[in-house]
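Ticket closed. Logging final result for Methyltransferase.
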Amino acid sequence: MCQPIGFPAVSEPAYLAATRDSYDTVAEDYTKLVTTLFAQEPLGRAMLGAFSEIVLDCGGGPVADLGCGPGHVTAHLTSLGLDAFGIDLSPRMVEIACHSYPDLRFEVGSMTALDLPDDHLAGIVAWWSIFHTPPESLPVVFAEFQRTLAPGGHVLIGFHVGDEHLCPETSYGHPVSYDAYLLQPDRVAELLTEAGLTVTAQLLSEGSKWPQACLLAHAVGPMPDA
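Final structure:
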């Protein structure tokens, strides 16, 4: 099921290369930390549970976990009954995900140019994975969400709240070259709306380092009867 495909050698924004290289470097130590933290995030798992229930109530279908990292969220979504698969920018992360969850599907790819047909997905999860996307590039990412979601499909985004542009030199015990961005929920909701997605729910919570937000939205299309 796993498909750790090499990333195409095409021109791309510098931030994507920096993010890929950095996560290839930190992959093993990142995996140890985030899988532990995920087990300690009941509110986040509750949002994933609500998202899963909504997608299934709307008939189900393929769900993409974008920026899936080591695959733990993809596996969690699958355990909730979804037909989930993962896509990540880092080939090393995809290798780890394939090794940890060999029955699931994982691929190398970018949220800025998804190798998926139009109107294909019942749902998208971007769980802390827009963290390294410059705010000016988010419209491109959200346009891809809207393009690949079927009418009435749902998206759940988790991100760190704030106004800072971070430039760490090390992370997870290794040198890194990526930047990171804290975002305001109102601005993310505005960008989703501009991309043609309607925000239907929002959760704000205190994180261990920064406040956290989850936004649930859906593409224009038929919704289930009340």
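The chain has six helices and eleven strands. No further action required.
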